[in-house]
Recover the amino acids of this structure.
């Protein structure tokens, strides 16, 4: 039995670059006819938004729960890189994400993780070679090769790295990039390898250079990295070469908006509505060749209805011709529990810190994933509140004997400790604290709960359980956001200065984003792509 329906309103057509009063007819999920209409309703019908690069796991939600919030914000599709769960549980972890996503109305398009682990010094459950990547690229839900973070391997001709790139090229699937700060001859080599996008631009100049070489630049506005203010001019200067993404977005922020926030900010700055919709919807659909409609006859009936073109308050979201805005019953279905155990174990942590020499301290930059290197001296304890220097610990998820200890500046904490089983991309246990005892107590909470995140204030522990791989929960997004917000609020009340402290902490062990990071093997100099002594030279 065929299903047909219609809707009327002011149609904002990003392909024809026109706005017209229209009635749209759709049948069996496909737009069959568009007629001009004199009595159209006073609402705007626009293409649904697409997040062009997101790690679902960073929302702390399984895909079905992520979809629940994204759809309400007018998102109809996401281009997802599951490399967080890939590091923790290998191919089976990726399959879990795909299977869980199938239960949702939201359109998920996955990438095959290209760097598992993220770098040669990192650990993971099951390293991905070109063989594992090829298996994933053959899945229908996998539309592209996810971000190639090993830019030294690309530039220096690493055989395995180029074999992975070749698997994507052989299947004519796009290759996502990850090249923060890369320039000159090295950038040219990187792009020449077939890499087509980058979401790691921090300056407009960097973005323009990459666009000149043919890369599309993803304007990122997530929970930790916020580059919209620096990059938004390309919306007007070169709209065909830009897309919007969140990359990593915690549940409290997801509750407040998704790609619709990018759109709202762009319109407020005076950018043309059709340029903005090209960036928010058209470009990701075309670049990744997604089966997502753009309000054209013969395409899927994927669109949203908003009240006006300034606030973009989403009244309803349609996917395949169905109003999915309030499909709560779909998301209430519990996904099958995956049997993979979290490899957390108890291990004594030696926190004694050598003194007497100048040391290297990881300096956090608010709103950025990159760090700086601060060279200074510290007391024998390693803590210096006047200089805002705390201790950071990374405990391997895969080998409890591997423990990295370092110093960090920029968190503003004067008591207690935070810890989490989220530490990109290997997802070890990471903790930052104002004294050794608090760090141990916070880490112990994570181990006992087989994963999660917590804040120990010196007296009590506030925590959020993440039973799916130590990365995600299956509770409703509002419940996850509430618990996360309560922890954040308490942490900030106690002195933490950062907007998203847990998200920021999660990137302090990622060895592919400059400049100084901490791994279980020790302090890592990303620029030299090698371990480095904690003592300043």
């Amino acid at each position: 039995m065929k299903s047909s329906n219609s809707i009327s309103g002011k149609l904002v057509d990003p392909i024809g670059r026109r706005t017209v009063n229209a009635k749209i007819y759709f049948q069996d999920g496909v737009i069959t006819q568009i007629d001009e209409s004199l009595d159209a309703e006073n609402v705007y019908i626009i293409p649904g938004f697409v997040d062009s690069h997101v790690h679902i796991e960073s929302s702390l939600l399984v895909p079905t729960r992520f979809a629940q919030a994204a759809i309400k914000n007018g998102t109809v599709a996401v281009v997802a890189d599951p490399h967080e769960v890939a590091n923790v549980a290998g191919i089976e972890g990726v399959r879990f994400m795909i299977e869980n996503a199938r239960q949702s109305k939201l359109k998920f398009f996955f990438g095959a993780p290209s760097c598992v682990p993220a770098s040669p010094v990192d650990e993971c459950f099951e390293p991905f070679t070109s063989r594992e990547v090829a298996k994933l690229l053959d899945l229908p839900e996998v539309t592209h090769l996810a971000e190639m973070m090993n830019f030294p391997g690309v530039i220096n001709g690493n055989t395995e790295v180029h074999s992975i790139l070749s698997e994507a090229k052989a299947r004519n699937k796009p290759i996502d990039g990850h090249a923060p700060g890369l320039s000159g001859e090295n950038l040219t080599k990187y792009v020449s390898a077939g890499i087509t996008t980058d979401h790691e631009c921090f300056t407009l100049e960097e973005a323009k250079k990459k666009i000149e070489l043919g890369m599309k630049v993803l304007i990122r506005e997530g929970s930790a990295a916020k580059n919209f203010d620096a990059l938004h001019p390309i919306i007007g200067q070169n709209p065909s070469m830009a897309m919007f993404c969140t990359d990593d977005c915690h549940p409290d922020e997801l509750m407040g908006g998704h790609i619709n926030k990018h759109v709202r900010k762009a319109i407020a700055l005076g950018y043309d509505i059709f340029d903005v919709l090209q960036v928010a919807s058209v470009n990701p659909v075309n670049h990744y060749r997604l089966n997502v409609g753009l309000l054209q006859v013969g395409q899927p009936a994927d669109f949203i209805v908003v009240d006006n073109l300034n606030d973009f308050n989403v009244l309803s979201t349609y996917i395949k011709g169905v109003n999915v805005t309030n499909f709560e019953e779909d998301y209430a279905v519990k996904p099958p529990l995956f049997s993979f155990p979290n490899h957390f174990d108890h291990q004594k942590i030696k926190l004694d810190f050598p003194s007497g020499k100048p040391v290297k301290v990881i300096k956090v930059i608010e709103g950025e994933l990159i760090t700086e290197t601060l060279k200074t001296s510290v007391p024998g304890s390693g803590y210096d509140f006047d200089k805002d220097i705390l201790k950071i610990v990374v405990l391997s998820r895969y080998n409890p004997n591997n423990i990295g200890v370092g110093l960090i500046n920029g968190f503003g904490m004067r008591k207690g400790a935070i810890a989490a089983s989220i530490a990109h991309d290997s997802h070890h246990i990471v903790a930052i604290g104002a004294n050794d005892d608090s760090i141990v107590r916070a880490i112990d909470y994570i181990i006992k709960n087989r994963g999660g995140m917590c804040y120990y204030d010196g007296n009590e522990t506030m925590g959020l359980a993440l039973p799916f791989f130590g990365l995600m929960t299956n509770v409703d997004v509002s419940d996850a956001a509430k618990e996360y917000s309560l922890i954040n609020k308490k942490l900030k009340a106690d002195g933490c200065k950062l907007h998203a402290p847990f998200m920021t902490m999660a990137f302090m062990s990622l060895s592919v984003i400059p400049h100084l990071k901490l791994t279980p093997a020790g302090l890592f100099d990303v620029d030299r792509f090698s371990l480095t002594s904690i003592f300043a030279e």
In short: The first strand starts at residue 4 and ends at 13. The mean pLDDT is 93. The chain has two domains: 48-291, 359-531. Residues 397 and 428 are 5 Å apart (CA to CA).
